[in-house]
Amino acid sequence: MIGTLRWRLALLIGAAIAISYFDRQTLPVAIRAIQREIPISNTQFSQLQAAFLVAYALMYAGGGKLIDVLGTRKGFLLIMLWWSFACASQGLATSFGFLATSLFLLGMGEGGGFPAATKAIAEWFPAGERSTAMGIVNAGTSVGAVVAPPLIALTLATLNWRWVFFLSGTVGLGWAVAWLRGYFPPATHPRLSPEERDEIAEVLKPRPRTEQGTRWISLFRLPQVWGLVFAKFLSDAAWYFYLFWLPKYLYEMRHFDTKQVGYFAWIPYAAAGVGSLLGGWFSSRLIQRGHSLNFSRKVALGASAAVMPLIFFVTRAPVQIAIVLFSIAFAGQQSWSTLVMILPADIFPRAVVGSVAGLVGFGGAMGGVVFGLVVGYLLDHGFGYGLVFGLVSTFHVLAFCVILLTVRRIRPIEAIT
What we know:
Elements: H1 5-35, H2 42-70, H3 72-89, H4 96-110, H5 113-124, H6 127-158, H7 161-182, H8 194-199, H9 201-204, H10 209-212, H11 223-252, H12 258-264, H13 266-288, H14 293-306, H15 319-347, H16 353-380, H17 385-406
Helix pairs in contact: 1-5, 1-6, 1-7, 1-11, 2-3, 2-4, 2-5, 2-16, 3-4, 3-5, 3-7, 5-6, 5-15, 5-16, 6-12, 6-13, 6-15, 11-15, 11-16, 11-17, 13-14, 13-15, 14-15, 14-17, 15-16
């Protein structure tokens, strides 16, 4: 399977997502070293994440439209170049304001990553393979987050915190070269074999004229769009809390040092990678066994949401069990995320997949902004992590209920007027 061109491209796209999630972990893991030079409170730390996520949310929505206009190849290249330079700029920071500005610019770049990835998967993969391909791409989130803690800890031990950002930005520039050389739409790709062209004939069919003329504003009239946006708002409120606050939780409540964070913090992200692949594979497998698209996606989504309330017990558990509970939650979250982010390609015409994916991601990022600020306030006012984990334990179950109510049947919409 991986030997075919489309699956190699899925791996290349997954590598971009891995880089983006490595970049996002640079600040949370290096925060203790940074605080020796730049004082940062819990509230300020949440404000830094808000700076990233506000820009990320806006660009997620606008970036989807940008990808639809520029095309996947040019759009993804522009996005990667922007976020690589923005990440590197954090290494020049001398103040809280400088860091906030760099994170805002980083969010502007990375906000287009998943809309571009979703668009590329829609361009190259038939419906029966799409969730598996998206699982590979979404596993990049885990790869980046798995390698980040130990590599950042090593960099901090051998160089200093500024080099964490310089090196991360350099890796992104290397990916941009590989993308420019390797990615073209399937209709024009010079290395697409006749055999593989037959295998993906479904995505090479001409688009209906009604699909080509869809207006962006028309998307807001569809309950499916609002449902996916709000579901993502809820589930990503939990995910961004895990992503940005796990290292800080381990530092403050479990009294880890940088070396221990590097040793333990990668484990939940490895489980998240398994969840990404398992959720996509499970849904594709159900389709291949003859079940409907609606049944296959919703069963997999429901199973993913069902494990999330276990995180409620993390503050009461010994550290080894806490890492297991984090791992279950991370696996469930990324299985969920794989499936939610493929729904725009399942439901909407190809010409607007990037735009819908952008709106869905906007909802997710805004969930991260709102809940991140709530977390910073709660912790600085003595409420503790127990309340925070109690809240996040409910979010995915509520999000699944939203999808059941607003997306009654997962099936392609032929036209949007």
